Amino acid sequence: MNSVTLPVSNLEIEGPIVDVSFSIPNELDSKLKIEDKKIPNPILVKAMIDTGSSHCVIQENIPKQLGLSPVGATGIRTATGRRECYLYFLRMSIPKHNFVYEGVFTAVTLEAQQSACLIGRDLLSKCTFIYNGPKNEFTLDLSK
Amino acid sequence: MLEVELKTYTKEKKILLKEHENEFVLIKENKIEGIFETQNDAIRVGISKFGNSPFLVKKIVEREQIQNFTSRLIKCDS
To answer: What is the ipTM for the molecules in this complex?
Structure first.
């Protein structure tokens, strides 16, 4: 089941943060294996679920470390201004849980100390997201 | 990266809008490689054809929707 419920010691202070692993997408993994090329190791980072983000974003060094090329470009607008960014297609999974998502992430410069990814409403549009404040836990369910 | 592909999209946009509005176009250099119903389908075909080299997948729309973020954690220069 593509669903995970995670406890957080203080959900109000820390926010809905989850450990995620980024790797190259399945299609590319298969192609590189056929061509007998090296598969880059997955990158482990923290991600925050952010309903204030229209799209998922990642720290721009992640696709660089995975050696990925962009699949698009877009304009973004934030509280501090506008800029053009590249789009990358990545596989995101939650280690030790059966949660896998392949999709487009916008590469940005994130100034967050604690998270290198914001999970935005494009992914949430495919999920049920339950924020359970009293229990200090949240659920992300990608089951369909 | 993608300068050639973006120019190709701009050049072909009017024609694409007539027949394929709200679909996704796959462009490699100055060639339109295909039209797809979903972004992920276009990307997967792009990877299958071109591997890990840059290509452009773009939603065919009159006015591109800009991505919005309330977070102040994303750095913008302007």
So the answer is: 0.91
CB atoms within 10 A of CB B65: 11
| Residues pairing with A39 in the sheet | none
Q: Distance, in angstroms, between A24 CA and closest chain B CA?
A: 10
Distance CA A143, CA A134 (A): 24
Nearest chain B Cα to A67, which residue? B52
Q: Is A9 on the interface with B (CB under 8 A)?
A: no
* Six-digit token string for A27: 């299609």
Q: Could B47 and A110 be called an inter-chain contact, meaning their C-beta atoms sit closer than 8 Å?
A: no
144 residues of chain A, pLDDT tens digit each: 688 999 999 999 999 999 999 999 999 999 999 999 999 999 999 999 999 999 999 999 999 999 999 999 999 988 888 889 999 999 999 988 888 999 999 999 888 668 999 999 999 999 999 999 999 999 999 876
User: Which amino acid is located at B28 in the chain?
Assistant: K
- Considering CB atoms only, which of A55, A71, A82 is closest to B46? A71
Q: Do B40 and A80 touch (CB under 8 A)?
A: no
